[in-house]
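Can't paste images in this forum, so I'm doing it all in text. The chain is below; anyone willing to post the predicted structure tokens underneath?
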Amino acid sequence: MKKIFKAIRDKDFDLVRTLIENKEELVNCVAKQPPKKDDGQSPLQVALKTGALDIAEYLIDCGADLNYMEDESCCNEWRTPVIHDAINAAVMKCRWNTNDKIRGFIEYSTEKEARKAYEILEKMLKLGADVNKLDSYGNSGIWRFCLQANQILPTFNYSTNSESDDRIFTKELENDLLNVLNLLCKYGADISYVSPDTKRTVRDFYLGGSLSKLLSQIENSYFQCEGEYILRVISKDEEKILWDKLNNEFKFKPGTDIIGEWIIITGDTKRYHKAIPWNEEQENIINSILKELGLEKMYALDWNHDCFEFSPMEDISINYNYYDSDRQCQVYFPTYYPDGDYYFFFDGTWNYGIFGHPWRNEIIIMGKELIKRFEKNKEKLGLELY
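Text version of the structure:
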């Protein structure tokens, strides 16, 4: 039995496969000390914590227990469910860095490694791993993410409310961590869970720095309706129906011309000019307006890009994006301002809508009640009549 754990630590994939093919029950055997750090753990746990990701994936495919956790007979006080090891691996394979005066900026991991660890975590969650399973100290999956992420983010000084430059919160690191965080939330991570140690939720505990920024982007990004998340990329068939209606009934004509009709909307409309994109506060005002109207389900169309069904109740953060592992691409949710392309937002009944032209800096509001609310907030939104 010790042979398989040594093979995992040596990252000897061929030997691991040979051992399991000869004795299938080894996939869920339990390690005995020495070494003490492996005592009570499964092969999958050891593979994940040592970065043997190809072996970890093989063990999953062979039927490894995805909800395994050491029992109290092991010699270690801190016992963790295997999903926590997968979360740790996904975080530590993000493109983090160190930045000091002697060695300068050094980035660890690569996009490929980050993707691999993410996909293993995703596979475990898809196959039924419990994202909210607690370790022996009462930490949940979301807490495990935060505790681990805090180790690779810039050090935050709560006394001075400032971050050190010992590490840099790069866009690559932010995207990698957000992908993991989005994935955990997608599979039901409880962001309102109160840790028995801190007596707080993660959002209440991490009140500053880069980790707080990450949590603020994700906390309200998922709105649950009867157990399902509303935000989704719509299918090409759904998309075609909506664009066909815009093309045929609304006479939508995309182009860079700044004169002439580009869309014809019957009923109550008002046209505004806005030269620069709305900031986060202004985007939130627009979202609040849609919430006031009780619009629980809407469409967001981005010309020649992904289109979405969403709810304003989700409070989706500005510039929200996530990694779609099925299509292997980053997905970007549009802002209410047409920043670089035609962005259209409307409800399923086509009674209310926001239609933006990127080159004319023109915003058309559709629907009497929606117009009233835009007029009321016109100064705050920096709008001028077109």
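The longest helix spans residues 111-126. The chain has 13 helices and 16 strands.
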